[in-house]
Amino acid sequence: MSQLAREFKVKDLLEKQKFNQKEISAMTDPQIEYYHWLYFEDSVYDYM
CA angle 36-8-18, nearest 5°? Predict the structure, then answer.
């Protein structure tokens, strides 16, 4: 993941207050992508 994409996703997670800066700094790129997907991506099942 690019640094810009990582910063964007980290900013979103911090704003949502799910994690603090220390927790996020210890995460790998795949972990950040997973949690961003978990909290921000809509699924078709969300609307059923």
Answer: 45
Instruction: Answer for the pair 9, 38: CB distance below 8 angstroms, yes or no.
Output: no
Tokens of residue 25, six digits = 């700094």
The span from the CA of 14 to the CA of 46, in Å, is 23
Q: Cα 28 vs. chain centroid, distance in angstroms?
A: 11
Half-sphere exposure of 38 (CA within 13 A, CB side): 9
pLDDT per residue of the chain (48 residues) written in tens, 0 to 9: 799 999 999 998 898 887 889 998 999 999 999 988 888 876 666 666
Rounded Cα distance, 10 and 6, in Å: 6
